[in-house]
Each structure stands twice: as structure tokens, then as C-alpha cells.
């Protein structure tokens, strides 16, 4: 049986799409059972719906953090998911929500963690004259962008790069990294001998 994954997004959802298309390969050990968002206008929701994936949206506006997280949690459980993949979900999570998904929630972050947690990672890498940027998939813990790193891909920085051109190339690396890392993670989880 394939592992059931809920993907949480806030925007374009291109990483969600990469996870989804990878899941269509017969050998993929996970399936996406829900795409949920705090933003009902998120472009990724339309992509998921067109692909026949159940979607859920609940704005965080007017709800406190714990209450909003509880609504999201309920939708995820309702969908039958046992893993959560954050993919551009622009919300700081409550400790209660993080605890409920301890060891079963992954995130993708556009830097070589532990470098450049938080926002504006590409500009910060360029400003620091780094020659290499990249992307990381990590387990989510209470501290922002801080959990154990499960996989990384390095991306060379070109002298001509702007934050935007670098971001575009890092995204191509993300589309490789996230599906593979998630697949390996759920496979290892269901068979500790791997
Ligand atoms: C990605 O760069 C990811 O690393 C970060 O947010 C971005 C999401 O982009 N967490 P998209 O919505 O998947 O296109």
C-alpha cells in the first residue's frame, strides 16, 4: 500500500506538482491524498484539482495560529494522510501541530541548511559571495527550518545570477530532490531494514 501524503501550499505549488507527477510513476511508494492551503487563491490548488486530487482551503485570517492549525490538521486526518509535505506553506506552525506530525512532516527550503534559514535565501547567498547555493529537505521540528536534513542538492551560482535567476535554477533542483527524498523517507519508514 502506498503511503498517503497531504501537501500544504500557499502559492504556485510547483513543488507540489513535482511531488504529484512523481507519484504517478508506478514504482512511487507514496500517493497524494490532499492538497491544502491557507490561501484559497493559491494557484497550486487549481493544478491539484485539475489532476483530480482533493483540495482544501481555509484562510488563517481571523483565526489564531492554534485554531487554524487545528482546522488544517482535521482536514489532513480526514483525508487519511499519515505524512505531511510542506511545499511553500508560508505559515509558522504551532508547537501543537508540529508535535502531532513529529517524524512524519517534511519541508523543502531553498538553501543549503543550516545556512540561510527564513526568507530571501538567494539574495543572501549572492550578497555573501557564495559560489554555491542549493536546496534542502528536512524534517520539521518546532524551530523554523531547523530539523534534521534528509537530503540536499547543490546549485552553482553564476556571476550573472540575480536572486530570481538563481531561484529558478534552485527550483529545478527542488523538483528532483523533494520527490526522491519523500519516496525514500516513506519507504524507509515502512521497512526499517532498508
Ligand atoms: C520553494 O522554493 C520552496 O523551497 C520554498 O517555497 C518555494 C515554493 O515554491 N519553501 P512553489 O510554490 O513550490 O513553486
Give the bound compounds: 5-O-phosphono-beta-D-ribofuranosylamine
Runs in which pLDDT lies below 50 for 5 or more consecutive residues are none
Strand content: 15-25%
CATH class: Alpha Beta
Q: Tell me the span between the first and last alpha carbons.
A: 17 Å
Shape label: globular
Quickly describe the structure.
The chain is of the alpha/beta class. The chain contains 6 helices and 7 strands.
Description:
It is a single chain. This protein is α/β, with parallel strands linked by helices and 194 residues long. It has one domain: Rossmann fold, CATH 3.40.50.170. The protein contains six helices and seven strands. The protein has helices at residues 14-23, 43-50, 65-78, 95-100, 121-127, 163-190, and strands at residues 3-9, 30-37, 55-57, 83-86, 105-109, 132-139, 149-156. It has a seven-stranded mixed beta sheet with strand order 3-2-1-4-5-6-7, with helices on both faces. Strand 2 (30-37), helix 2 (43-50) and strand 3 (55-57) form a beta-alpha-beta unit. It is globular. 5-O-phosphono-beta-D-ribofuranosylamine binds at residues 9, 11-15, 87-88, 108-110, 135, 171, 174.
Amino acid at each position: 500500500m502506498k503511503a498517503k501524503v497531504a501537501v500544504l501550499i500557499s502559492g504556485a505549488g510547483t513543488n507540489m506538482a513535482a511531488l504529484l507527477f512523481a507519484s504517478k510513476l508506478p514504482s512511487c511508494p507514496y500517493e497524494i491524498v490532499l492538497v491544502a492551503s491557507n490561501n484559497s487563491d493559491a494557484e497550486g490548488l487549481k493544478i491539484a484539482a485539475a489532476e483530480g486530487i482533493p483540495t482544501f482551503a481555509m484562510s488563517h485570517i481571523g483565526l489564531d495560529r492554534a485554531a487554524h492549525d487545528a482546522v488544517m490538521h482535521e482536514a489532513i486526518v480526514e483525508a487519511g494522510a499519515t505524512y505531511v509535505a510542506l511545499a511553500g506553506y508560508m505559515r509558522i506552525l504551532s508547537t501543537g501541530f508540529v508535535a502531532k506530525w513529529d517524524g512524519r512532516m517534511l519541508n523543502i527550503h531553498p538553501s543549503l541548511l543550516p545556512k540561510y534559514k527564513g526568507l530571501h535565501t538567494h539574495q543572501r547567498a549572492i550578497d555573501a559571495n557564495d559560489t554555491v547555493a542549493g536546496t534542502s529537505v528536512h524534517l520539521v521540528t518546532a524551530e523554523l527550518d531547523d530539523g534534521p536534513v534528509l537530503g540536499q542538492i547543490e546549485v552553482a551560482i553564476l556571476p550573472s545570477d540575480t536572486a530570481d535567476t538563481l531561484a529558478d535554477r534552485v527550483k529545478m533542483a527542488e523538483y528532483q530532490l523533494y520527490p526522491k527524498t519523500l519516496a525514500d523517507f516513506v519507504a524507509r519508514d515502512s521497512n526499517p531494514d532498508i
